[in-house]
């Protein structure tokens, strides 16, 4: 699978910073190494669309991780507004349902931008007990596969999934959808509190198109060296 347009490499760095100044300062250092910068809810709630506009000047693709989930009309309107900001990728929740997913996909297509939508399936913070608590009897993996299939059938072009779900989701959705995978821990780093992780090369070999890495880079004493080490691991791994 070729990388999305404008991506120099498959490494997405999650710039999880509370304010624009510290986010930009980190991104300036990582510019030219990261293939994409992921901006999430904390920064967007704090700084708004101005944060996305400021990142545009870095000329590195932007992944706007807003995980939209609302009625179809509201999500479609938000997708259109997000497209104006020019991110390469934007997330919606697959559990918003078919009408919401179709409305989001249609809004993205009609927005005259190259922005691609990604569907989030089951948050990896949820286990089987949590799903049962909200009335879902399937195990997380089966539910993630179910939602991925639904999202793709509704016209969503990519899926965010954990390393453990790559193979099952790829088998369910076929070769076209882009799989974007967080929960990555480099070979040399400790697992910490993360249990369902994979190394960059494991995720790539399993079929991840893009890998999302946050703290192993952003909390490193030398973020650029950490990112370069991950890129080297990725280059050594066979892409699918
Ligand atoms: O754990 P790490 O700092 O590498 O996380 C990077 C990013 O990936 C974070 O922005 C987090 O929101 C996202 N993430 C996710 N799903 C997970 C783990 C992390 O979307 N299971």
Care to describe what's here?
Helix 7 runs parallel beside helix 8. This protein has an 8-stranded parallel β-barrel with strand order 1-2-3-4-5-6-7-8, surrounded by 7 helices. The chain has one domain: Aldolase class I (TIM Barrel), CATH 3.20.20.70. It is 44% helix and 15% strand. The chain starts with 10 loop residues before the first strand and ends with a helix. Helix 1 links the parallel strand 1 and strand 2. By secondary structure, the chain is an alpha/beta fold. It is built from 11 helices and 8 strands. The mean pLDDT is 94. Bound molecules: cytidine-5'-monophosphate. Cytidine-5'-monophosphate binds next to strand 8 and helix 10. The site of cytidine-5'-monophosphate has 12 residues, from strand 8 and helix 10.
Content of β-strand: 15-25%
Strand order of the largest sheet: 1-2-3-4-5-6-7-8
Major sheet size, sense and barrel closure: 8 strands, parallel, barrel
CATH class wording:
Alpha Beta
Number of domains: 1
Quantity of strands, as a count:
8
Mean pLDDT comes to 94
Keywords:
15% strand; binds cytidine-5'-monophosphate; 8-stranded parallel beta barrel; alpha/beta; 8 strands; 240 residues; globular; TIM Barrel
Quick description:
It is built from 11 helices and 8 strands. It is an alpha/beta fold and 240 residues long.
Summarize the helices and strands and which ones pair or pack.
Elements: E1 11-14, H1 20-30, E2 36-39, H2 41-47, H3 49-56, E3 62-68, H4 72-84, E4 89-93, H5 98-110, E5 116-120, H6 128-133, H7 140-153, E6 158-160, H8 166-173, E7 178-181, H9 200-206, E8 210-213, H10 215-218, H11 223-236
Parallel strand pairs: 1-2, 1-8, 2-3, 3-4, 4-5, 5-6, 6-7, 7-8
Helix pairs in contact: 4-5, 7-8
Bound molecules: cytidine-5'-monophosphate.
Residues 14, 16, 40, 124, 162, 182-183, 212-216 line the site of cytidine-5'-monophosphate.
């Amino acid at each position: 699978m070729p990388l999305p347009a404008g991506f120099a490499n498959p490494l997405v760095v999650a710039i999880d910073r509370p304010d624009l100044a510290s986010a930009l300062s980190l991104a300036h250092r990582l510019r030219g190494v990261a293939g994409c910068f992921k901006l999430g809810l904390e920064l967007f709630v704090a700084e708004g669309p101005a944060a996305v506009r400021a990142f545009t000047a870095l000329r590195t693709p932007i992944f706007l991780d807003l995980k939209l989930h609302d009625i179809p009309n509201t999500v479609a309107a938000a997708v259109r507004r997000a497209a104006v900001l020019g991110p390469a990728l934007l997330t919606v929740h697959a559990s918003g349902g078919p009408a919401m997913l179709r409305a989001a996909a249609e809004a993205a297509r009609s927005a005259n931008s190259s922005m691609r939508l990604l569907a989030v399936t089951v948050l990896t913070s949820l286990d089987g007990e949590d799903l049962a608590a909200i009335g879902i009897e399937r195990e997380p993996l089966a539910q993630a596969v179910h939602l991925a299939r639904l999202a793709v059938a509704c016209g969503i072009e990519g899926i965010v999934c954990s390393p453990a779900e790559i193979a099952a989701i790829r088998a369910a959705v076929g070769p076209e959808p882009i799989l974007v995978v967080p929960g990555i821990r480099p070979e040399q780093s400790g697992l910490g509190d993360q249990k369902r992780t994979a190394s960059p090369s494991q995720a790539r070999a399993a079929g991840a198109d893009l890998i999302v890495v946050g703290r192993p880079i952003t909390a490193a004493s030398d973020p650029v060296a950490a990112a370069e080490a991950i890129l080297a691991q990725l280059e050594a791994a066979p892409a699918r």
